[in-house]
Amino acid sequence: MSEDGVQVWVRHLDARESARQTVRALLADYLGIRIESIGIREGPGGRPGLESGSGDFSISHAGDVVAVAAVRQGRVGIDAEFSDRSLPLAAMARDHFTAAEAQRVTESACPGEMFYRIWTAKEAFLKAAGLGLGFGMDQIETGATADGGVTIQSVCGMASLARGWSLSHQERSIDGRRLVVAVVNGPQSSP
């Protein structure tokens, strides 16, 4: 997938592959440089970044799957989660989402799908903005689109902090399991 200048890879890792080496190889190919030239640094809050400053990337792990998003300009965040409907999704929504979002989950024709769309959107945004999960998922408010999608509406109750950020979702089937992937792309500076 390549939307808004964002390159996304989802890789199923086998026992011989390391996520770190896979990420470095993907980024080297994307940037057109040798893998040995890829330097990854740890930024504020543990957010990974390229030492060269020649773009931005984000990583998400879901079991034996690694998802990577990269951009040449701006910030990017990615989250990938396997849909597990055996979890208490309504309770998790009440604990981590705004009241309106929790209501959207319980009233949705497909509550599990809505839960994972909201969850992955929030986590991808927190990664892109460099805020981390400790910031609080309930501080990011999402809205619904006419086609059942999700948008980032506000941060800490301020719509202005959500402007300039785009969100896209995709779903994949991996070994018969449904993987929900959200990518958030935004300006160079975080809110």
Structure description:
The structure is a single chain. By secondary structure, this protein is α+β, with helices and mostly antiparallel strands. It has a single domain, classed as Ribosomal Protein L22, Chain A. It is built from four helices and eleven strands. It has a four-stranded antiparallel beta sheet with strand order 1-2-6-5, covered by helices on one side. The longest helix has 19 residues, at 111-129. The protein is globular. The two termini are 26 Å apart. The relative contact order is 0.18.
Which SSEs are present, and which pair or pack?
Elements: E1 2-3, E2 6-12, H1 19-31, E3 40-42, E4 48-50, E5 56-62, E6 65-71, E7 75-82, H2 89-96, H3 99-107, H4 111-129, E8 140-144, E9 150-155, E10 166-174, E11 177-186
Antiparallel strand pairs: 1-2, 2-6, 3-4, 5-6, 7-11, 8-9, 10-11
Helix pairs in contact: 2-3, 3-4
